């Protein structure tokens, strides 16, 4: 369901993060920020990046981080990073560094209310992110889902890569499941599918699974910023994903 472009605030959060809405939702997304009206996705405050940038201050409310190694075929991204969906920035950053892949994260920096910075994946058109993804052949987009069961919902249009990542995660003891339609990552406009091949992978990681990546199950800002607090599960998970990407 969609709301009109009138901003209603961030109170209406989705049961899941709804990072990858399906084509059936009929949402409109743009390849770059545009002036014409784009409807706000239910649960979001802003229509697209240009809308967000008019109301939020970079360096105070959010930041954009990226690395683009020469010749990188894979882009690992966390468009809801920082404190929007912790610890997706840390996961994508480590996985990209370990695999020598391109990396991008849009990171929420607010002391509170970072959900306001969430732009659903089919509307996420931040120019640097689009450029980095379009330069890659493969994409892994890291997201957070709710849930008190440790599980990852693996979606995206790259079905062959999805199957391989599921197999790799399962082999290391991580449970996976078929994503609900709102987070299945099938829409061609989803940023994970906007690489050279038009198909990518979207990882929606439940709260319980994300808590297992840090000692004490803490996901607050200072705690997740310190690598010393990462558990063995953090590294095993990231390396499982990278083990598939290394053979591409």
Protein model, in words:
The chain is an alpha/beta fold and 248 residues long. The chain has one domain: Poly-gamma-glutamate hydrolase, zinc-binding motif (Aminopeptidase, 3-Layer(aba) Sandwich), CATH 3.40.630.100. 26% of the residues lie in helices and 18% in strands. It is built from seven helices and nine strands, in the order E-E-H-E-E-H-E-H-E-E-H-E-E-H-H-H. The strands form two sheets. Strands 3-5-4-6-9-7-8 form a seven-stranded mixed beta sheet, sandwiched between helices. Helix 2 (88-99) packs across helix 7 (232-245) and helix 4 runs antiparallel to helix 7. Mean pLDDT is 88; it is low at 1-37.
Topology of this structure?
Elements: E1 2-3, E2 40-41, H1 49-55, E3 62-67, E4 74-82, H2 88-99, E5 102-108, H3 127-134, E6 138-144, E7 152-155, H4 159-171, E8 176-177, E9 201-205, H5 207-211, H6 221-225, H7 232-245
Parallel strand pairs: 4-5, 4-6, 6-9, 7-8
Antiparallel strand pairs: 1-2, 3-5, 7-9
Helix pairs in contact: 2-7, 4-7
List keywords for this structure.
single chain, 248 residues, alpha/beta, Aminopeptidase, seven-stranded mixed beta sheet, two-stranded antiparallel sheet, 26% helix, 18% strand, globular, disordered N terminus
Compressed to H and E, one letter per element, the order equals EEHEEHEHEEHEEHHH
Our Rg estimate from Cα atoms comes to 16 Å
Average predicted local confidence, pLDDT: 88
- Within CATH, the superfamily carries the name Poly-gamma-glutamate hydrolase, zinc-binding motif
Distance between the termini: 37 Å
Provide the CATH top-level class: Alpha Beta
Strand composition percent: 15-25%
Give me the count of strands: 9
Structural class: alpha/beta
Give the number of domains.
1
Would you give the CATH topology?
A: Aminopeptidase
How are strands sequenced across the largest beta sheet? 3-5-4-6-9-7-8
Unreliable spans are 1-37
Largest sheet: 7 strands, mixed
Q: Which architecture per CATH?
A: 3-Layer(aba) Sandwich
């Amino acid at each position: 369901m969609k709301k009109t472009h009138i901003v209603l605030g961030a109170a209406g959060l989705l049961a899941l993060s709804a990072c990858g809405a399906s084509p059936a939702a009929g949402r409109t997304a743009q390849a770059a920020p545009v002036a014409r009206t784009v409807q706000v996705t239910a649960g979001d405050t802003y229509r697209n990046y240009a809308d967000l940038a008019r109301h939020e201050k970079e360096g105070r409310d959010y930041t954009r981080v990226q690395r683009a190694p020469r010749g990188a075929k894979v882009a690992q991204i966390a468009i809801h990073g920082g404190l929007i969906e912790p610890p997706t920035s840390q996961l994508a950053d480590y996985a990209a560094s370990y695999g020598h892949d391109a990396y991008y994260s849009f990171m929420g920096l607010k002391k509170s209310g970072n959900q306001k910075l969430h732009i659903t994946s089919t509307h996420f058109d931040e120019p640097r992110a689009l450029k980095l993804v379009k330069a890659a052949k493969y994409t892994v987009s890291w997201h957070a889902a709710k849930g008190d069961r440790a599980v990852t919902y693996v979606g995206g249009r790259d079905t062959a890569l999805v199957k391989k990542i599921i197999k790799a995660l399962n082999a290391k003891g991580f449970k996976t499941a078929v994503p609900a339609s709102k987070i299945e990552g099938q829409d061609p406009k989803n940023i994970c599918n906007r690489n050279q091949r038009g198909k990518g992978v979207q990882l929606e990681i439940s709260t319980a699974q994300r808590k297992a990546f840090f000692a004490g199950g803490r996901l607050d800002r200072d705690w997740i910023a310190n690598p010393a607090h990462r558990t063995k599960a953090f590294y095993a998970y990231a390396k499982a994903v990278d083990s598939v990407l290394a053979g591409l």
